Amino acid sequence: MQLKHPALLKTQLYIDGQWRDAATTFTVRNPASGEPLAEIAKAGGDETKQAITAAERAFASWRKRLARERSQMLRRWSELMLEHQEDLAAIMTSEQGKPLTEAKGEVAYAASFLEWFAEEAKRVYGDIIPSHKTDARILVTKQPVGVVGAITPWNFPLAMITRKAGAALAAGCTLVAKPATQTPLCASALAVLAEEAGIPAGVFNVVAGDTRAIGEALMSSRTVRKISFTGSTGTGRLLMRQAADSIKKLSLELGGNAPFIVFDDADIETAVKGAMASKYRNTGQTCVCVNRFLVQEGIYEAFTEALAKAASGLRVADGFAEGAEQGPLINQAALDKVEEHVADAVKLGGKLLCGGKRHTLGGTFYEPTVIADANPQMRLASEETFGPVAACYRFKTEAEAIALANDTEFGLAAYFYARDIGRVWRVAEALEAGIVGINEGLISTEVAPFGGVKESGMGREGSKYGIDDYLEIKYMLMGGI
Ligand code: ADP
């Protein structure tokens, strides 16, 4: 990997403002080639406890800083990310596999959360409430919850950390970040820039390594007052159980099973454009990726054929290759799951319109795939495929589409394409999802609240709401006046 600033590439743990080794290491690999990229210091329970202690110590002074000071450091951190956009993107493509242009886009997206929360840091207002007694006054203030543990996935190795760290640090909390073991290099590069931005020792710590040991240390600590997690619903459930003992606050951003409904009155070209962006971005590995295309019968053939044409034209390549549009899947387990879902769908009557097999590039590359005649019995109807597979279902009426869309325990994102204004309102209100894209396939932005309903999680990230999850409300009654 050629970097303009090789100092961004760190393989140690970042605890209390220091770069530390550990007794053992683990290997990070490039998913496009399977080749080893780096040996990373492997944190366990002890290192995590040290990071928690550092964060606790740092909290005492960080919370007392002027909001303006915290804001300035967050803003500087964001600027530094943009100054090093190329290098950060190269690190990301190397360890995560996404095309370099997408990686650059993620760097900007990740930096936007730091900028956003730099601004929000200054707007944590309280209230004065008209009192219920003549000789008393009621005040409401907001205070940081304390030390926060952030557990993040590999699909957005920078943005999932900054979305949490930006809000936490703005609120006055300190943080211990546990990145996914597939993508620790992005997290440590972020720590290099945090240090350069002047963020004091202990405020932002990074421990990658033994997932179970780190998880247990974070979850069993009574110092850690909140966990913000992005990942699978299974792990989210486990963390929720583990949080019970110390009644930790939780923000959970879990799996999805996003429907994408195309009504007869939709504009096909726009719908296909949105479908491509939402389905094949990051090789289908985002929690808001479409998992089910529900298409009304009058437009079914036209839409599915246009989608297959667009999907089969995607350039599948190593993320560093010129014009690459779809990279590899993250690992063998991801490839196995995609293969199983496709085989199951074909067995149950699914018709392959394009793709349906491993790509000739080998490794974990898979062809962009479109399957017509999908039905609710197929595994890809109820499970998140997390790969470049578009399964298309047929429906007749609006009521049927809504019932199908909501027939899942998940409720993160939903999309639909329609022009009739009455239908737009009815469907938008009826969909059980935290995020609804109407005639639009890309919904992620730092200015809007991101999060799910049902078993897709709790809490919201980004936007003016995102900081609330890191604040406690305190009410003071001043009597004897
Ligand atoms: P994915 O399938 O996307 O990898 P996971 O939920 O397994 O989703 O992983 C998301 C994050 O949660 C990663 O950082 C992973 O290491 C972490 N993780 C997985 N299992 C645990 C656990 N038992 N305790 C704490 N963190 C965990």
UniProtKB/TrEMBL annotation:
<comment type="similarity">
    <text>Belongs to the aldehyde dehydrogenase family.</text>
</comment>
<protein>
    <submittedName>
        <fullName>NAD-dependent succinate-semialdehyde dehydrogenase</fullName>
        <ecNumber>1.2.1.-</ecNumber>
    </submittedName>
</protein>
<dbReference type="InterPro" id="IPR015590">
    <property type="entry name" value="Aldehyde_DH_dom"/>
</dbReference>
<dbReference type="InterPro" id="IPR016163">
    <property type="entry name" value="Ald_DH_C"/>
</dbReference>
<dbReference type="InterPro" id="IPR016162">
    <property type="entry name" value="Ald_DH_N"/>
</dbReference>
<feature type="domain" description="Aldehyde dehydrogenase">
    <location>
        <begin position="19"/>
        <end position="475"/>
    </location>
</feature>
<dbReference type="GO" id="GO:0016491">
    <property type="term" value="F:oxidoreductase activity"/>
</dbReference>
<keyword id="KW-0560">Oxidoreductase</keyword>
<dbReference type="InterPro" id="IPR010102">
    <property type="entry name" value="Succ_semiAld_DH"/>
</dbReference>
<dbReference type="Pfam" id="PF00171">
    <property type="entry name" value="Aldedh"/>
</dbReference>
<dbReference type="InterPro" id="IPR016161">
    <property type="entry name" value="Ald_DH/histidinol_DH"/>
</dbReference>
<dbReference type="InterPro" id="IPR016160">
    <property type="entry name" value="Ald_DH_CS_CYS"/>
</dbReference>
<feature type="active site">
    <location>
        <position position="253"/>
    </location>
</feature>
<dbReference type="InterPro" id="IPR029510">
    <property type="entry name" value="Ald_DH_CS_GLU"/>
</dbReference>
<dbReference type="InterPro" id="IPR050740">
    <property type="entry name" value="Aldehyde_DH_Superfamily"/>
</dbReference>
